[in-house]
Amino acid sequence: MKNEYLEEWIQNAALIHHEINELFDGLSEDQLNNKPSPQKWSIGEQLEHLMVSNTLYFPKLKAIAAGKHKNPSAARFTYLPQFFGKSILKAVQPDNEKKLKTSRKFLPDQKHHTLQLKDKFSRHQDELIELVKNTNHIDHKKAIITSPANRLIFYYLEDAIKIILAHERRHIHQAQQLLDKKQAVA
Q1: CA dist 82 → 22, 93, 143, 160 (Å)
Q2: 94 CB neighbour count, 10 Å cutoff
């Protein structure tokens, strides 16, 4: 692979399928939709949020794969994409317990989720992996994209791809904690 980190990233992104299957093993729809408080998301909302967030990157990944991407003009300040990328990547790590406020664009739908959400997420993850693979022909340390949340924030494609996976792990970890708390009470 042109981008050396990508092989490991793809393997880790594929492991998300296993983690979701474990999370859903024996899960009821009530557990999937249970909100511990009005301010906290249910497991279903956690997964929906990941799909909403990731999907906002899809047009950028498709443009890069098609050779139609141009770095933003502000990217000439090379310290900025590095600063933004590293800062966001650090913030979305699963072990970062600090609560983050999400952009409105990333909010999950307020609906009742069914257990079919597992299959929907699985298809979504497959599409994400394929889109990322399709960008391998360019140098991820030189391509710079804007954040789907704010066009004034931009970072290297490598950081964006790492952010996506760390963000997924963070919310799967949070969903698992919700389930663990529920089982501890039962």
Answers
A1: 35, 17, 12, 11
A2: 15
> In angstroms, rounded to a whole number, what is the distance separating the alpha carbons of residues 32 and 104?
22
The fold adopted by the segment(s) 5-185 is: Four Helix Bundle (Hemerythrin (Met), subunit A) (1.20.120)
Domain locations in the chain as residue ranges: 5-185
Question: What pLDDT does residue 182 have?
Answer: 55
d(CA 17, CA 122): 6
The pLDDT score that the predictor gives to residue 39 is 85
CA distance 184 to 32: 16
pLDDT value of residue 181:
65
**How high is the mean pLDDT in each 10-residue block of the chain (186 residues)?**
94 94 90 89 94 97 96 86 96 86 77 92 97 97 94 96 97 88 54
Q: Is the pTM of this model over 0.90?
A: yes
Asked if 27 contacts 19 with a C-beta cutoff of 8 angstroms, the reply is no
**Rounded to an integer, what distance in angstroms lies between the CA atom of residue 136 and that of residue 66?**
11
DSSP secondary structure letters along 55-82 = HTTHHHHHHHHTT-----GGGGSTHHHH
User: Residues for the chain: how many in total?
Assistant: 186
Return the closest-CA partner of residue 99 out of 181, 39, 26. Answer: 39
Nearest to 178 by CA among 32, 15, 13: 32
